[in-house]
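sorry for the late reply, my laptop died twice this morning and i had to redo everyting from scratch. anyway the thing you sent over, i finally got around to it. pasting the sequence first so we're on the same page, its 310 residues, then the predicted structure underneath. double check i copied it right bc i was rushing
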Amino acid sequence: MALPGVSVVIPLYNKGPYIARALDSVFAQTFQDFEVIVVDGSTDNGTEVVRGLDDPRIRLLREVSRGVSAARNQGIAEARGELVAFLDADDEWTPRHLEALLRLREKYPQAGVYGTAYLLKENESTNRAPSYSPAIPPEPWEGLLPNYFSDAILGSPPLLTSIVAVPRCILNELGGFDTGAWYGEDVDLWGRIALKYPIAFTWAGMGIYHTEASNRACNRKEPIREHAFVASARNALQAGEVPPELTESVHEFVASRQIQVACRNLEAGRPDLARRNLRRCKTRRLWRSKWWTLLLAQIPSGVYLALRGR
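ok and here's the structure:
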């Protein structure tokens, strides 16, 4: 069999109400030379929905271990295309998404990740564009990001899992997603790639990120000891693997993840963990956010959650 141009990996876990929409957006692409690998760990009707779609390009795999990172890695291991695109089961693509990613791949073969802009779907009628870093040139620009780490601090994340594609050789080189983390495992992988390779971005071929969908992992209110990329960056800095021109922006990006995790720990009722995250946080650019979050971490958990209406 001829190898597909792109392998699309979709982890599926109890997203029965959304998986048909995600797959329909894949089949509606202007670029049609792809395979779709659905890694399924569902206990709802999602499995039956996929089986009911009559398209030979779909491969339905049963998840062999738990967790979205393990599912994505399983899909990567089964991928036959040289380029692997990711889509969460509750998100979707606009019709020229794969076309835009492949154009980036052709123009910037040296890049480690290819990503498109995206819209945030907040309800049935509202799409909101994120506020990207002002350092990213305005639409219709496409090219290599000036500095991924700075761009991710100065605005909304330029990369989300559902709008990126990565060469399979790079995924294999870096070991894929960290299966030991349930939060930030995608940001960790993009960061590890960005330490070694440029990141390509286009305003064209947008994805749609459904913030209103239920059962999203990012909405879990559970304690987090450390963001996955904080450990990756620490190891890379100690090993001298961070290019000098990226050192300052990597430090600030690490600080932004520490503050983010501290805020999530406050939401999870663990101000002790939040204070621990912030004690290790060193920043020049984000010091206001750090000290404001540290102030909130002094409030008893019950009072904080009551003020937040939790």
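The two ends are 54 Å apart (CA to CA).
thats about all i looked at so far, will dig more tmrw
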